Amino acid sequence: MANNNDRPEGNQGVNRPAQDPVFLAANHNIPMRNYAVPNLYDFSPEISRPIVEENARFEIKSVMVQMIQNAGQFGGLQGEDPHANLIIFVEICNTFSIPGVTLEGIRLYLFLYTLRDEAKRKVEKNKELEWEKAQKIEIGVDLVAAAKHQLQFLSEVDSIPFLHEGPSLDRAIYRYNAYWLPLLAKHSESPLFEGPLVVPLDCEWIWHSHRLNPVQYINDCEELYGKILDNSNVISTTMVESPCLIKETENIWNELYPEEPFSFNFNSQEADVPKDRQLSQLEKYTKYDLVLAVKRQTPFFYQVSQPHMKNENFLQEALARYRGFLYLIKSSMDESVQMFCVPTYDIDLIWHTHQLHPLCYCKDMKKLLGLVLEHDDTVTDRTVGEKLDIGFTGTTKQWDDTFGTSYSKIGAMYRGPAPRMQGGVKSGECKLESSGGIAAGCGSKVESSGRTATAGCGSKVETCGGITTAGCGSKVGISGGTTAARHGSKVGSSRRTTAAKCGSTLKSYRGTTATGCGSKVGSGGGTTASTCGSKVESDGRTTAAGCGSKVVSGGGIAAAGCGSKLENRWRHCCCGCGSKIESHGGTAGCCAGQV
Fold first, then answer.
1. Looking at the structure, do residues 220 and 286 belong to the same domain, yes or no?
2. Are residues 453 and 550 in the same domain?
3. What is the pLDDT of residues 158-173, one digit of tens each?
4. Contact predicate 509/524, CB 8 Å
5. Is this prediction's pTM over 0.90?
6. In terms of domains, do 312 and 292 share one?
7. What's the domain range around 548?
8. Of all helices (H) and strands (E), which one includes residue 431?
């Protein structure tokens, strides 16, 4: 379609209403022959999306839909008058007024609610065709497999708090600029060895955050090194299976940078950047604020850390939705509509993964959009009416209009703010009292510990003289030695070492005791081990009880298999699955029998 600059000389600069004969006749500067030629320069054969102001918050209310549907819907059947249906529809829409949205916009958004039956099916068929078009968008890398790798990497980085702030982060940024990028440039120009280059974990984290501003990263690479530095011949340390791969890169690193170790201990007092190695002293370094970039990316893993995010089917669907997301952006650009599209977190995970392959992302985006698509992660205010909220509302509406499906997806929405990082421990609301050295997780409570106590989410720890650990929802009380309690377990009155797993109960024992899920151990003077659902009581020495077994009054050493029962034994006893042993003074062994 030609633009205004391509108009013929006699028609140039004429802006007139298309159906105004008076205006036409009054314009004596236009030759008569031009009146017989249709003017198509301002004509578009497609339906254009109406302009909606950037700050407008358009929301379809149920009363609007009810009014339209109550007035009668058009089904496309013989005998129905579509013109009468449209007249009624226009009259109803004229009663609506939404700030920032034109009347044409209101009509277009509400029109689908006037249809039913065959007419509606034809429209839905068109939406299915739109989805099929979106799935034809070409992407030059396996984003599903790469997304799984990204999740594994982010999990590793998330466990190292020193990479998120402070001197260690500054040191990582220096190492990235001074050592990693120059090494990557050398390897890209001429491979230093046959295998892939292994990137140090700290440098990879900074590189990761840098690439997630794709336009900035491409500009920095071209300015500093004359080309885009890609990841095509690079492997993450989290993906290395053979130590030999790391050794090859480490040897090259040590040869080029003998003063700087390949792997660095950031949990040390030497993490500060030496005064003679400041970023500003480097010949080449990015001016992009990588500290802020890292801080913006730090909370992302929490949003995508749930187990289903690694599921193959979930990721395949996320890839399909990502193509749909790109299709919406392309449609808006084709219609010259400025739209701030906001992804859900499944789409965002795939989008991030695509950006982490700079050459592929650049090529794919230029082929699809004619430019490198920007990724703006600086907009974080989720307040109603702000840019992020308005953008998500608009994206949701555009998705529904284009594809006829729900944009929101279970497991892919905002989970709330990520837990804060405090001293290397993520914690929420917790209460700590009278502790010598304590770390408490989200919602936990720790009181009166003479040494070190750790309580998981929702757990309670009281009066521990030694070292105590309580898992989620567990309770630990009056422990003189070392006690560990897992999810939902209860531990009381322990003088030595105790471990209690999910749902188990431990009481009144002086030696070392371990209990499995749902088991119960009481009055143990020696060493006791009890697995899932078992019960152990009154043992003077060492006792082991299998799944669902019961051990009572053991003076010596006893072992009970699954579903077995042992009582009143003074010496050694071994009992197999389903067997029962009572009142023996010596040693007995059996399987599925009775003694």
1. yes
2. no
3. 999 889 988 899 999 9
4. yes
5. no
6. no
7. 518-595
8. strand 431-440
